[in-house]
């Protein structure tokens, strides 16, 4: 059984953080426009339980240590940057992306130059063009 330390639900203008299971169950029944969910497990071993469960759905999720970020499959940082670039008429501008986890890969893919942090895992360091 997975031990969840905390779950944070994000909407377009607010977030809700819970560590109590009964409060989470009541909250989930609310009709909210969720944009993402972040789950923090007590340890890395618990993440495999969450991973196998989430694989059943069309979701975009990224595991980073004891955290997992969950969004709809079409929602990611790369899409957001592409939309902002288009809406703000920035097609001719260079876009720099800075990231430290695998949920930044889509952002790296649409940016002109990407940076990863030294504290990031090796996979992330290799995906960024530069590491600092």
Structural overview:
- By secondary structure, the protein is an alpha/beta fold.
- It has 2 domains: 4-72, no CATH class; 77-131, no CATH class.
- 32% of the residues lie in helices and 32% in strands.
- It has 5 helices and 8 strands, in the order ββαβαββαβαβαβ.
- The strands form 2 sheets. The chain has a 5-stranded antiparallel beta sheet, covered by helices on one side.
- A hairpin with a 3-residue loop joins β1 and β2 (15-18).
- The longest helix is centred in the middle third of the chain and has 11 residues, at 44-54.
- The radius of gyration is 17 Å and the shape is globular.
- The relative contact order is 0.12.
Outline type = globular
Which regions are unreliable across 5 or more consecutive residues at pLDDT < 50? none
Into how many domains do the coordinates divide? 2
Structure summary, number of beta strands: 8
> Radius of gyration, Cα only, in angstroms?
17 Å
Strand order of the largest sheet: 2-1-3-5-4
Describe the largest sheet: 5 strands, antiparallel
Could you tell me the strand content as a percent range? Answer: 25-35%
Oligomeric state of the chains in view? single chain
The whole-number mean of residue pLDDT values reads 84
Distance between the termini: 38 Å
H/E series, N to C? EEHEHEEHEHEHE
How many separate helices?
5
Q: Determine the fraction of residues in helical runs and give it as a percent range.
A: 25-40%
Helix/strand/pairing class, anyone? alpha/beta
């Amino acid at each position: 059984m997975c031990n969840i330390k905390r779950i944070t639900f994000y909407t377009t203008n607010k977030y809700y953080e819970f560590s109590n299971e009964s409060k989470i169950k009541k909250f989930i029944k609310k009709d909210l426009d969720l944009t993402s969910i972040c789950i923090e497990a007590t340890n890395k071993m618990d993440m495999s339980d969450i991973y196998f469960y989430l694989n059943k759905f069309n979701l975009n999720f990224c595991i980073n240590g004891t955290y997992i970020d969950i969004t709809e499959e079409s929602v990611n940082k790369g899409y957001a940057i592409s939309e902002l670039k288009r809406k703000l008429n920035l097609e001719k501008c260079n876009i720099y992306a800075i990231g430290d986890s695998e949920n930044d890969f889509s952002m790296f893919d649409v940016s002109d130059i990407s940076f990863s942090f030294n504290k990031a895992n090796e996979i992330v360091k290799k995906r960024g063009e530069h590491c600092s």
